[in-house]
Amino acid sequence: MYTRILVPLDGSATAEAVLPYAEAFAAGFKTSVELMSVIDIAAMTTHLAADKVPHLDTFIATEEKNSARYLENVAKNFSPLPTECRIVRGKPAETILETTSKDRDTLIAMATHGRSGVKRWLLGSVAEKVLRGATNPLFLVRAAAAKASPRRIINSIVVPLDGSSLAEQILPTVSYWAKGLDIEVTLIRAFEFPASAYYGSEDYLPDYDAFREEARKEAAGYLKEKEESLVREGVRTVSILTIEGPAADEIISHAQTAPRALIAMSTHGRSGVPRWILGSVTEKVVRHGDDPVLVVRGK
């Protein structure tokens, strides 16, 4: 499914937090890794003193040389996996998007900022732009969470489904990951009722327990069909879970209790519009969850 895994690095410990994951994915998927460093000349110029501008070419050459040496040292950790290093001039996010758009089978793997004690992700401008602009599958890991367990690997995939064809588009990817990495899958569907369901006229009061049981059975039946489909495709372990409550909250909460979980979701995309329309559930999961997230743009 993947021709390569692209790992953007800027020399920071935050960016490097994704490396153990990229190594595990490359080995499991038997694909190559490309380490990329982007030299932002415009940013360099902005912070360059006026008397240093004539020497800009020298500074750029030095930065490229240092970046190349850095990437080569990182690449040694991927041996014997096929690994390439690339130095590109441009704006980081735009360069990542342009490079990967030429090959839709490239998996982008990035680490993003996280703040200890704050239940949200600080994506930063680069990760934010890549998240909204990429047409490629994107793996994001919160740097703070990765640092807490440097050798952490993915043991399970949590797959939220809401019954829509859009959400189901993640399933072929889930099957590929589960078989390639030999990990278990949990299909989860959260359901809740609108406020009006709790009220009725004096002549009729709804049976909330009956509503809840009917909704749970319907959700479980739907997930069972998807479970059987994944098993037929060769996925070793699949389980299903129905939960009552707000979807994003329940997805995040369950993933926190799962063993080294990855949340895999398909999200909206508009043809001809170079940005992602994430939707409220995906947006909340990405921003507020602690676990890694795999986001695939739906067709």
What can you tell me about this protein's structure?
With 299 residues, this protein is an alpha/beta fold. The chain folds into two domains: 1-150, 3-Layer(aba) Sandwich (Rossmann fold), CATH 3.40.50; 154-299, Rossmann fold, CATH 3.40.50. The chain is 42% helix and 24% strand. It contains twelve helices and twelve strands. The chain has helices at residues 13-16, 19-29, 41-46, 56-75, 92-101, 124-133, 143-148, 165-168, 171-181, 208-232, 247-257, 280-288; strands spanning 4-8, 32-39, 83-89, 106-114, 121-122, 138-142, 156-160, 184-191, 238-244, 261-269, 276-277, 293-297. Strands 1, 2, 3, 4, 5, 6, 7, 8, 9, 10, 11 and 12 form a twelve-stranded mixed beta sheet that branches. A hairpin with a 6-residue loop joins strand 10 and strand 11. Helix 5 runs parallel beside helix 6 and helix 11 (247-257) runs parallel beside helix 12. The chain is elongated, with a radius of gyration of 22 Å. Residues 115-122 and 270-276 have low confidence and may be disordered.
Which helices and strands, and how do they pair?
Blueprint: E1 4-8, H1 13-16, H2 19-29, E2 32-39, H3 41-46, H4 56-75, E3 83-89, H5 92-101, E4 106-114, E5 121-122, H6 124-133, E6 138-142, H7 143-148, E7 156-160, H8 165-168, H9 171-181, E8 184-191, H10 208-232, E9 238-244, H11 247-257, E10 261-269, E11 276-277, H12 280-288, E12 293-297
Parallel strand pairs: 1-2, 1-4, 2-3, 4-6, 7-8, 7-10, 8-9, 10-12
Antiparallel strand pairs: 4-5, 6-12, 10-11
Helix pairs in contact: 5-6, 11-12
Quick summary of this structure?
The chain has 299 residues and is of the alpha/beta class. Helix content is 42%, strand content 24%. Residues 115-122 and 270-276 have low confidence and may be disordered.
